Amino acid sequence: MVKKETMTVSQAMQEMHDFVSLLEPEQAEELRANITLQNFKKNTVVYDYGDVPQYMYCLLRGKAKVVRQGIGMRPQIVRAMKPVDYFGYRAYFAHENYVTVGSTIEDSLICLIPMPLIEHWMQTNVVLSNFFVHLLSVFLGDSDQRLVTLTQKHIRGRLADSLLFLHQNYGFMENTRCLNVGFSREDLASLSNMTTSNAIRTLRNFADEGLIEIDGRQISLLDLNTLEYISKSGE
Fold this sequence. Notes:
It is a single chain. This protein is α+β, with helices and mostly antiparallel strands. Helix content is 46%, strand content 21%. The strands form 3 sheets. A 4-stranded antiparallel sheet has the order 1-8-3-6. It has a 4-stranded antiparallel sheet with strand order 2-7-4-5. A hairpin with a 2-residue loop joins β9 and β10 (218-221). α7 (155-170) packs across α8, α7 packs across α10 (224-233) and α8 crosses α9.
């Protein structure tokens, strides 16, 4: 039985202060009346390929990812999210159906905000419009960097980069060197643009070299400096 996260609308709005603070008072009241809080179990699809975008999603608790299919339906993780990250809005602004899948990595609480309402606010709220310009610009910059990583680095460089990305995004469990996320080997391979067998073999090599320690899905990063060197050198 999955324990559901509970949160009031007021608490959710406090969590989303960076977004809510940009709204006019009447817009904030409209938001309060129209948002939905929804619990999603681990490995649950939030939105799927071809769906018509209706909401901006805000991850309040848990972890989530955005995946795009490549050649031969091979999945590629393009975003890994933590609280409080916003996702699912790009397709609406692009006037297209979703070309990605948003799903949870673990049990999560997500806030759903109707995109037509956001679009209406943006017509008169320049500050809010700039908020989305900033979000999309940061995302584009990150995508450019990931493109270089996934196309120019060798397998070891790509995997080291992914491990460092997970550390930067999720940190360590308290008083440990263990990543605070349980990525499957398939997900780690997808994030690194390699086959699962290559990811497993390279992880084993890193462990043999004393760079990491593996315990099931849990990975501890023992030598960040060397992992950073491998990532930067691409080898």
